[in-house]
Design brief:
heterodimer; A: about 290 residues; alpha+beta; 2 domains; elongated; B: about 350 residues; mainly beta; Barwin-like endoglucanases; OB fold (Dihydrolipoamide Acetyltransferase, E2P); 3 domains; 5 helices
Chain lengths: ~290, ~350
C-alpha cells in the first residue's frame, strides 16, 4: 500500500516539474525573440517546416508551452480533476513525444542546427541526448495521465523517498541537457574589457574622480568634451584648453576596467601640431604595404 | 559606401576626415606610439593601385584619368584583365571605370607603371534582399539614404549563383560580384555562400574567456566606394563602439555627451572583436599574399557583421568577417576583387596592450 502511494506521489510530482520546464522553455524562446527582434529567430524544430510557416509555428509552439504549463498547474489539484486534467496531460504528452520525433527529423535534415528548446542556450547541434530528454519528458507526461490530485506525502520517509526520486530525475535531465554546460559557462563568464559595452557617463565619472583630472583641470577651458572615442580598453576624452595664452587640446585616456582605472593625459598644441597633419583627404592615410 | 553608419556624415568632407586623422595625433600625445608618424606625417596613398576612368586604349598601354591627372599604364601579355570575366585589354573602352594593380619598373630615365591586373566596371552588392522578381533583386546594402541597390543576375550565371544562394527571397542575404551598368549591377559570380539564416539572425559569437586573443583571424572582404573617395585606403569595421560611434554629435543641455549611431543591426556579429571608433588604426594582414598595412577605420562594417562565413582563398579561415575593406585597400593588400575575400588577420595598432597598463 505504501509502495502504491509512493508511486502515485511520484506520478503527481511530474506535474510541477513539467510545468516549470515548459514555462522555462517558453520564456527562453520569448527572450530570444525579443533580443533578436524576430519571432522566428534562431533554429529548432521549426527549421524543418517551410519558410512561410516558421513564424506561426514558432509562435504556436511557444503559446502551447505556456498554455500547457498553466494548465498542468491549475489542474494538478482537486480543482481540475477528471476531464480537464486528462486533456491537459494527454496534450502535454503528445507535444513532448512529437518534439522528440521532430528533433530526430531535425538531426537528420539539419545536422548543424540547434534544437532551440531553451532559446539561445540550445544552439549546439541536436544529439541523441536531446532527443532522449524529450522522450523522457514525454514518458513522464504519459505517467502523469490518470494520476490523482497533488497532495502532501503521508510520512517523512515517503517525503524523503519522493525527494530522492525527483533529485535523481533532475540529475538525469541535467545530464541529458547540453544547455546546462552553457548556463555554467555564462555564470562564470566575464567579457574582457575590449568587448564590454561601457557607458560614456561611467567613463566621465571615472575621469572626474581621477588624480590626473584634478591635476590638470586648471588647463581646461570648456566643461564639455569636444571629442570622445574608444579604442579597445581605452576611451579617449578631449577637452579644449589653454596654457600660457596658447590654445591646446587636453586629451585623457581612461582605461575601461577596474574601480580606479588608470587615466593618462596628453596635450596637443592646436596651432603647432595640427599644421603637420594633412588637411585634405586625411583619411587616405596608411603606411606603404 | 556599402555600410557606412548614418551618423558618420560625409566622409569625403575635409572637416570630418581631418577630425579623424587628428585622433591619431591625440592618441600619440597620450601614448608614445610610432604608428601616428606613418599616418599623420606623410600623406601616404596606395603605392600600387590606380583608380580612374579609361581615356585611351592602345596595344601596349592604357591611359587612365585619375584624381591626380592622366596616368599611362603599360600592359603586357601577363596582364590579367577582368570585365565580367577574364578578357583581353582590347575589350576595354574609353569611359570604363577601372582599378589597376601595377608594379613600377625602372626603365631608362623615368619609372613606368606595368599593369599586373586590371578590373573594369567591377562592382559588388552585399545586403539583404528586399524584393525579388525573376532574376532581378532589390537589395538593402545599408546605404546612408536607405536607397536599395538593383541587381540583375546574368542569364549565364544564374545557375552558378543559385547554387551558392539557394534562397533568393526577401529577408535573406545576397553577396554577388558583377559589372556596373548604369543603375544596376549585372551579377556574374557569387562572392560568398549564402548564410542559412535570415538577415539580422546572425548566430551568437562564441564566448571569450580571459584576454581577447590577438591578432584576430577571419575573412576580409571589400565594398564599393559609393560616397567614399574611390582611392580611399580604409576599412569598414564590424565592431564600432555603440556608445560613441566615433562621433560626438550632440551635446546635451546638461553638459553630457550623447552620440549618434545606427541602432539597427547592433551586436557583435559572429566574431568577437575589440570595440573601436572611426579613425582607429588597425593592422590588416593578407595571409594569402603576406602583405599587411595599418589602415584607418573609415566606416561601419554593418554588412560584415551579418555574415558568418569563411574564406577559402588559402586554407580555411576561421568563421566571420573581420574587415570590410575599401576596394583600393583590398587590391593594395594583394587581394583579387573577383575572389571576394582573402584570409586575413587583424590587430590593433598604436595602443599598448591591456597588460601594459
Amino acid at each position: 500500500m505504501i509502495g502504491a502511494n509512493t508511486l502515485d506521489l511520484l506520478r503527481e510530482v511530474q506535474l510541477p516539474l513539467l510545468a516549470v520546464l515548459l514555462a522555462g522553455a517558453c520564456a527562453a524562446k520569448a527572450r530570444r525573440a525579443i533580443t533578436a527582434r524576430s519571432v522566428d529567430a534562431g533554429t529548432g524544430p521549426t527549421a524543418v517546416v517551410p519558410l512561410r510557416l516558421r513564424r506561426p509555428a514558432a509562435v504556436g509552439l511557444c503559446a502551447c508551452e505556456l498554455a500547457l504549463s498553466i494548465g498542468l498547474l491549475v489542474t494538478a489539484g482537486p480543482v481540475g480533476a477528471g476531464g480537464p486534467s486528462l486533456v491537459v496531460r494527454c496534450a502535454t504528452a503528445l507535444l513532448l513525444c512529437t518534439a522528440a520525433g521532430a528533433l530526430y527529423v531535425l538531426r537528420t535534415r539539419r545536422p548543424d542546427a540547434g534544437c532551440g528548446c531553451f532559446g539561445e542556450l540550445s544552439h549546439t547541434p541536436v544529439t541523441w541526448r536531446v532527443i532522449s530528454r524529450s522522450g523522457l519528458l514525454g514518458a513522464s507526461a504519459l505517467a502523469s495521465v490518470g494520476a490523482p490530485p497533488l497532495r502532501m506525502p503521508g510520512s517523512a520517509a515517503q517525503a524523503w523517498l519522493v525527494l530522492a526520486a525527483v533529485a535523481a530525475e533532475l540529475a538525469l535531465l541535467v545530464a541529458l541537457s547540453p544547455e546546462a554546460g552553457q548556463v555554467m559557462l555564462r555564470l562564470g563568464h566575464t567579457d574582457p574589457c575590449e568587448l564590454r559595452e561601457v557607458p560614456v557617463a561611467r567613463t566621465l565619472a571615472a575621469l572626474h574622480a581621477s588624480a590626473s583630472w584634478r591635476r590638470h583641470r586648471r588647463l581646461i577651458t570648456g566643461a564639455v568634451p569636444v571629442d570622445v572615442w574608444r579604442e579597445g580598453c581605452w576611451r579617449f576624452v578631449v577637452f579644449p584648453g589653454e596654457l600660457a595664452d596658447r590654445q591646446l587640446e587636453v586629451v585623457f585616456a581612461v582605461y575601461l576596467s577596474g574601480r580606479r582605472p588608470p587615466v593618462r593625459m596628453g596635450m596637443l598644441d592646436i596651432d603647432a601640431d595640427f599644421a603637420v597633419a594633412p588637411r585634405t583627404a586625411a583619411l587616405e592615410l596608411s603606411n606603404p604595404v | 559606401m556599402a555600410d557606412s553608419c548614418a551618423s558618420c556624415g560625409d566622409l569625403t568632407g575635409t572637416g570630418t576626415a581631418a577630425w579623424y586623422a587628428r585622433r591619431a595625433l591625440l592618441r600619440s600625445a597620450v601614448f608614445d606610439t610610432s604608428d601616428h608618424e606613418l599616418w599623420a606625417h606623410r600623406p601616404a596613398v596606395a603605392c600600387s593601385v590606380l583608380v580612374g576612368v579609361v581615356t585611351e586604349v592602345h596595344e601596349d598601354a592604357i591611359v587612365i584619368d585619375t584624381r591626380h591627372g592622366p596616368e599611362v599604364v603599360t600592359v603586357s601579355p601577363a596582364t590579367v584583365t577582368w570585365l565580367g570575366a577574364r578578357t583581353a585589354v582590347s575589350a576595354l573602352r574609353p569611359g570604363d571605370t577601372v582599378i589597376v594593380r601595377h608594379t613600377t619598373v625602372n626603365a631608362g630615365s623615368r619609372p613606368r607603371r606595368l599593369a599586373e591586373r586590371i578590373w573594369a566596371r567591377i562592382g559588388r552588392v552585399t545586403g539583404r534582399i528586399i524584393a525579388a522578381e525573376g532574376r532581378e533583386f532589390l537589395v538593402d546594402a545599408g546605404r546612408h539614404d536607405r536607397s536599395p541597390r538593383r541587381v540583375v543576375v546574368a542569364t549565364a550565371s544564374a545557375r552558378q549563383i543559385q547554387v551558392r544562394f539557394p534562397r533568393l527571397a526577401p529577408g535573406f542575404l545576397l553577396d554577388v560580384i558583377g559589372t556596373r551598368h548604369g543603375d544596376h549591377l549585372l551579377a556574374v559570380t557569387p562572392a560568398a555562400a549564402q548564410p542559412p539564416y535570415r538577415a539580422g539572425e546572425t548566430p551568437a559569437a562564441p564566448l571569450v574567456n580571459g584576454p581577447l586573443p590577438v591578432p584576430v583571424s577571419g575573412s576580409a572582404v571589400w565594398h564599393e566606394p559609393d560616397d567614399e573617395p574611390p582611392s580611399l585606403l580604409g576599412l569598414g569595421y564590424p565592431a564600432l563602439d555603440p556608445e560613441t560611434d566615433g562621433l560626438v554629435t550632440e551635446q546635451t543641455a546638461a553638459g553630457g555627451v550623447t552620440a549618434g549611431g545606427a541602432e539597427a543591426g547592433r551586436g557583435p556579429g559572429c566574431v568577437r572583436l575589440p570595440y573601436l571608433s572611426l579613425g582607429s588604426a588597425v593592422r590588416v594582414t593578407n595571409e594569402c599574399a603576406g602583405r599587411s598595412a595599418v589602415l584607418p577605420v573609415t566606416s561601419d562594417g554593418f554588412m560584415a557583421r551579418q555574415f558568418c562565413d569563411r574564406c577559402l582563398q588559402c586554407g580555411t579561415s576561421p568563421r566571420g568577417r573581420v574587415a570590410d575593406l575599401t576596394m583600393t585597400a583590398f587590391v593594395e593588400l594583394g587581394g583579387n576583387l573577383e575572389d571576394g575575400c582573402f584570409n586575413a588577420t587583424l590587430a590593433l595598432a598604436g595602443l599598448p596592450r591591456p597588460t601594459g597598463v
